[in-house]
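Q: I'm building a small set of examples for a reading group on sequence design. Run inverse folding on the following structure and report the sequence directly after it, with nothing in between.
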């Protein structure tokens, strides 16, 4: 696969960071399905022109999927696909488009999407891999100015009396670097997004007894369960706890990540420990928080 240089934004101005209202691998929960968001949602009102970030050959998404999502234009370039969702196309399938070539406009039907979903993917004999467009060396410019927020670290038993097998989780979110202020459609200002990486470790009297464990890391890529548009992903429940919800207009999402399931406290002597959690973004801005816990095994 040929390497690509840093590529521009698909909406004007190409060399200026745009507001993004949905990040890579945010939860998507609808119609009974649960999966990871496999691109980024660049806020743009209906009718906004959408342009190619790289030259290549044009195709359309599957007809039924394209109809449901307001149009999907795919440009194959240098061994990878760039997908532009919710676009009313102005190019023909099979044609070639140049860098900054017009692909279409943000669709107003079947609904006013208010954004273009932009995805980058590659294929090999093992299937499809989606890449985070905001990783270093990809869509540029992109800057993230602050660390994520850790809201709460929780245990499935009272933290001062842990025994046997215990589940640990964390509620955390990140904020979009540029606020989404466009008026159409309304309701998307100030809604949270997810951190790119969550990890944790266990300490006892400042001594590390369980080294860093990665709960989730979507800074670079994601491989869905099957080819094509990800359906319910069987791994969703291993990353997100059941009370997770996605953003909806005027309703902020809630993101709870599993840290450890059925952690066996019997593997450690009774006493006071610290669970340290770190949340970071694609530019390695990070925040840590600690929960004091007491292991109290009677047997």
């Amino acid at each position: 696969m040929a390497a690509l240089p840093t590529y521009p934004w698909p909406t004007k101005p190409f060399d200026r960071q745009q507001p993004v209202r949905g990040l890579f691998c945010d939860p998507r929960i609808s119609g009974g399905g649960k999966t990871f968001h496999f691109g980024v949602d660049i806020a743009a009102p209906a009718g906004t022109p959408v342009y190619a970030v790289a030259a290549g050959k044009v195709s359309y998404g599957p007809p039924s999927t394209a109809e449901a999502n307001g149009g999907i234009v795919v440009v194959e370039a240098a061994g990878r696909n760039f997908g532009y969702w919710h676009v009313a196309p102005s190019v023909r399938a099979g044609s070639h488009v140049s860098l900054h070539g017009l692909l279409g406009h943000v669709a107003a039907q079947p609904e006013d999407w208010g954004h273009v979903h932009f995805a980058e993917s590659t294929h090999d004999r093992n299937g499809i891999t989606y890449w985070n467009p905001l990783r270093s060396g990809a869509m540029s410019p992109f800057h993230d100015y602050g660390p994520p927020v850790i809201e709460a670290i929780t245990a499935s038993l009272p933290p001062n009396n842990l025994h046997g097998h215990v589940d640990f989780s964390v509620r955390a979110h990140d904020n979009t670097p540029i606020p989404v202020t466009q008026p159409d459609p309304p309701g998307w200002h100030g809604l949270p997004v997810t951190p790119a990486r969550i990890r944790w470790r266990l300490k006892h009297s400042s001594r590390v007894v369980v080294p860093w464990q990665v709960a989730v890391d979507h800074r670079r890529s994601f491989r869905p369960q099957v080819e094509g548009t990800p359906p319910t992903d069987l791994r969703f429940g291993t990353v997100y706890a059941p009370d997770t919800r996605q953003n909806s207009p005027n309703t902020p999402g809630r993101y709870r990540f599993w840290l450890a399931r059925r952690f066996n406290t019997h593997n450690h002597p009774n006493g006071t420990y610290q669970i340290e959690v770190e949340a970071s973004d694609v530019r390695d801005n990070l925040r840590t928080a600690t929960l004091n816990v007491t292991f109290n095994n009677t047997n």
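The first strand starts at residue 20 and ends at 22.
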